[in-house]
Amino acid sequence: MTSLDEQAFQADVDSGAFLNGSISGRWGVEQVDWPHALIWVRARDGSHLLLRFELTNYPQTAPTARPWDGAQNAPLAPARWPRGEARVSAAFNPNWNAGALYIPCDRIAIQGHEAWRHQHPSMLWDPAAGIHRYVRVVSDLLGSPDYVDAP
Amino acid sequence: MKTIKIVLQYEGAAQVLVGDVDGQLSVGEALKVLGAKDIGEGGRLVFVEGHEAPVSLNASVKSLVKGKDEGEVVRLHLGRCKKVMVNVTFNGVTKSREFPPVTRVEHVHQWATHNAFEMSPRDAAEHVLELVGGDERPDPDTQIGTLTDGTVCAVSFDLVPFKRVEG
């Protein structure tokens, strides 16, 4: 039987707000193996970054995600993480934590960063907005001119 | 049967209806298939992306499609505003222009950064439209008519820089 948190997640990815971005090719769900989901986000060069989300107790608990190598079905090697000179490298920083993104809507990153709640309100996890919030933040990052595709 | 994907957004609502319909259907029939309410009532009009004027409910869906490929997407808007006055403020200067309500935020951003404030492409991509009086940053695919209540046909944004997350 499908758990309540998985039902909530499925409802959110079937919602118009998420589908609207999918139709525009901004993001999409590749696979769900609860409590994990693989979701890709398009970068400004047209490439897709695959993220593996951990979604336990969704949406009350914020998710966490890491770049994923779909071919190897394994974490993406740090050398292949998205790079940039400013906010992209700050968000995709395997030296800080190779298992999460350094963004306010990430469950791991928000810990110990209470100041972010007033510094970056539009990037905080919002259960009402759901997974759409997280992929929108990543989409904005990968659409930045600061973004440089990994070699 | 040619199937066409419809994306419908409403005035004043975050809700988005998405569905595949038979291209032979009229716009009114297609909206019913999608489960849309208040079709043609209370002065509500239907707009299609790429057109300034509202479309007839009797027009066929396929007549709204520019190409002939499968997988075509028609973006529609249902609401009372015929035009939406958009005000964008950057560095204390406000620029304004009217758009059809079906216009997406992405297009308004393009106008604001390129035409109104003449930013470089790099600077443009480092700024985002934020609704005045809050911290909401509507999605690039959000139609500006959804940001009105259908009676006051205006939307005001601040054009703000993305901030690096640090600390």
Question: How would you describe the overall organization of this protein?
Answer:
The complex is a heterodimer of chains A (151) and B (167). By secondary structure, chain A is an alpha+beta fold. Chain A has helices spanning 4-13, 16-23, 87-91, 116-119, 131-142; strands spanning 27-33, 36-42, 48-54, 64-69, 74-75. In chain A, strand 4 (64-69) and strand 5 (74-75) form a beta hairpin. The longest helix of chain A is centred in the last third of the chain and has 12 residues, at 131-142. Chain B is of the alpha/beta class and 167 residues long. Chain B is built from three helices and eight strands. Chain B has helices at residues 27-34, 105-116, 121-125, and strands at residues 3-10, 16-22, 45-48, 73-79, 84-90, 93-99, 127-131, 154-161. In chain B, a hairpin with a 2-residue loop joins strand 5 and strand 6. The interface between A and B is medium-sized, with 31 and 28 residues.
Report the average pLDDT across residues of chain B: 92
Question: What's the Cα radius of gyration of chain B?
Answer: 17 Å
Q: Radius of gyration of chain A over alpha carbons?
A: 14 Å
Q: What amount of the residues of chain A lies in strands?
A: 15-25%
Strand content of chain B: 25-35%
Tell me about the largest β-sheet of chain A.
Answer: 5 strands, antiparallel
Unreliably modeled segments of chain B: none
Question: How would you briefly describe this protein structure?
Answer:
With 151 residues, chain A is of the alpha+beta class. Chain A has helices at residues 4-13, 16-23, 87-91, 116-119, 131-142; strands at residues 27-33, 36-42, 48-54, 64-69, 74-75. Helices cover 15% and strands 32% of the residues of chain B.
List the keywords.
heterodimer, A: 151 residues, alpha+beta, five-stranded antiparallel beta sheet, 5 strands, 26% helix, globular, B: 167 residues, alpha/beta, four-stranded mixed beta sheet, 3 helices, 15% helix, 32% strand, elongated
